[in-house]
Amino acid sequence: MTIRESFEQQEKAYLSPYAALSINSKGRRKEEEPCDIRPVFQRDRDRIIHCKSFRRLKDKTQVFLSPEGDHYRTRLTHTLEVSQNARTIAKALRLNEELVEAIALGHDLGHTPFGHAGERALNRVCPLGFEHNVQSVRTVDRLEKGGQGLNLTYEVRDGILNHQTDGTPHTLEGKIVQFSDKIAYIHHDMDDAIRAGILREDDVPGEIREVIGSTTGERLDHFIHDIVMNSMERNDIRMSEPVAAAMKRMRQFMFENVYQNPVAKSEESKAEALMETLYLHFMKSVDSMPEEYRRLMDEGEPRERVVCDYVGSMTDRFAIAIYEDIYIPKCWSI
């Protein structure tokens, strides 16, 4: 028996009957030899951690564009917080930690620079549309490894695709990540907003604090405990009605006071204009894109999609540098 097979047997003996077992995975798009050490979901997690798009998350905006300070979240730290929340819930429910971790670490790989401002810009200017969850799947299927993709399992790809509110994950592990994503951004965006002086803790309505706590830490703890307690021994992941209502109200409060706050979002119109300008530039100048993207067009991919692939993959600072190189005059010298 290989090490992998012994791990698979341990999963069968220990995990919940509702867990997604590695040995029961629906498989990969392209068949390949199994690893003799790692079960399939652990292997997927490792592939995601080592890919280029994962490393680029460290220089992509979460909420605050180019904040002055070292402690504001980036898309990478958001991803790590989602992963930690998801693993805590999965472990308590005896579900597959390696699957939730792989989904969580991959869920935002297709996100644009400048957060949702960049996503809005590409969705508006590209006739094929742009959604970061769909792009995340495209990233792992098509764009990574020079066009070969990471060849992830069905369960990980499904969880990545369906992590947004309107998604319908087909595993409980995918549902955990769906909840964990919301919990993470409500928690850390509130924390960052307080750090930025945009909000004070006392601004949170009393009816919310009475249900889920009076600090960001209390709310995070309450959300996770509530999910665990209400999902025990069930073939579902759920919150109690009072906590679900409080989370919905908290999310609405964040949209009204942070996500649409003119102080926090004062630079977003510039970011959107920059993204649209880069898209239009590369639509006219596809030969100036890297060879790996030009090859996608040679293989029949639509120009509009490939230009979105390139512009959407950029980090904040790389997008700014490319824009400056194309459009900002330089000092003349011999």
Fold and architecture overview:
This protein has helices spanning 3-14, 40-49, 52-56, 75-92, 97-106, 115-125, 132-143, 154-161, 172-196, 206-212, 216-231, 241-259, 268-284, 291-298, 303-313, 316-327. It is mainly α and 334 residues long. The chain folds into 2 domains: 3-259, Orthogonal Bundle (Hypothetical protein af1432), CATH 1.10.3210; 268-327, no CATH class. Helix 8 (154-161) packs across helix 9, helix 9 (172-196) packs antiparallel against helix 11 and helix 13 crosses helix 15. The longest helix is centred in the middle third of the chain and has 25 residues, at 172-196.
Largest sheet: none
Number of strands: 0
Helix content: 55-70%
Look at the structure and give the mean pLDDT. Answer: 94
Which band does the percent of strand residues land in? under 5%
Find the structural class using helix and strand composition: mainly alpha
Sum up the overall morphology in one term: flat
The low-confidence runs, each spanning 5 or more residues with pLDDT under 50, are none
Quote the distance from N terminus to C terminus: 69 Å
CATH superfamily of the largest domain: Hypothetical protein af1432
CATH fold description of the largest domain:
Hypothetical protein af1432
Oligomeric grouping of the chains: single chain
Number of helices, where a helix is a run of at least 4 consecutive DSSP H or I residues: 16
